[in-house]
Write a structure and sequence with these properties.
The chain is an alpha/beta fold and 209 residues long. It has one domain: Rossmann fold (3-Layer(aba) Sandwich), CATH 3.40.50.2020. It has 6 helices and 13 strands. The protein binds uracil (URA). Catalyzes the conversion of uracil and 5-phospho-alpha-D-ribose 1-diphosphate (PRPP) to UMP and diphosphate.
Length: 209
């Protein structure tokens, strides 16, 4: 699992337990997902390049570090990916946000794009593709494929929970995309839900069924 980074920070794991719990209601679920997204963003941005800048403190002139101004783009996969966007934006407020919508083709069971709206300079940005659940890997793989087709060259994939099947699919299709996840679960069930998972992330975020 060389390109899979599992965030075992106690705060992330603690909050993820409440997120998984079926007794956690919509409001609390949404807040917790937002908080975990912020904590994950802190870890995901660990490798951002720094540059040296000269500043004046009240005492003297000194050289300090600043993020080099690398352009970042977030690409949530609709609709559940939206639930993690604001949490990431808290730490990277200047990031541009593209959106991609996918539906599942009933015949092939593969994800098919029905909507995409991206920043125009997508090829110059480091993209973080966001979906809370990496289940079969179909949505993530197709989304990344579509982004590559329109010029994306640098991508990371961020999710709350992954199934081994989804990780395998993404690694096979896109070995260049590192995967950042709070937990890798046991398996998929016959309906392609992650086990133990958290249920349907979109429904739990938005109170639908
Ligand atoms: N999508 C979800 O929301 N939950 C799963 O368990 C799998 C896919």
């Amino acid at each position: 699992m060389s390109n899979v980074y599992v965030f075992d920070h106690p705060l992330i794991q603690h909050k993820l337990t409440y997120i998984r719990d079926k007794n956690t209601g919509t409001k609390e679920f949404r807040e917790l997902v937002d908080e975990v997204a912020t904590l994950m963003a802190y870890e995901i941005t660990r490798d951002l390049p720094l540059k040296e800048v000269e500043i004046e403190t009240p005492v003297t002139t000194t050289t300090c570090k600043m993020i080099e101004g690398k352009k970042i783009g977030l690409v949530p996969i609709l609709r559940a990916g939206l639930g993690m966007v604001d949490g990431v934006l808290k730490l990277i407020p200047a990031a541009k946000v593209g959106h991609i919508g996918l539906y599942r083709d009933p015949a092939t069971l593969e994800a098919v794009q029905y909507y995409a709206k991206m920043p125009s300079d997508i090829g110059e940005r480091d993209l973080i593709v966001i979906d809370p659940m990496l289940a079969t890997g179909s949505s993530a793989s197709v989304a990344i494929n579509e982004l590559k087709k329109i010029g994306a060259t640098s991508m990371k994939f961020m999710c709350l929970i992954a199934a081994p099947e989804g990780i395998a699919r993404l690694q096979e299709d896109h070995p260049d995309v590192d995967i950042f996840v709070a937990a890798v679960d046991e398996k998929l069930n016959h309906k392609s839900y992650i086990v133990p998972g958290l249920g349907d992330a979109g429904d739990r975020l938005y109170g639908t069924k």
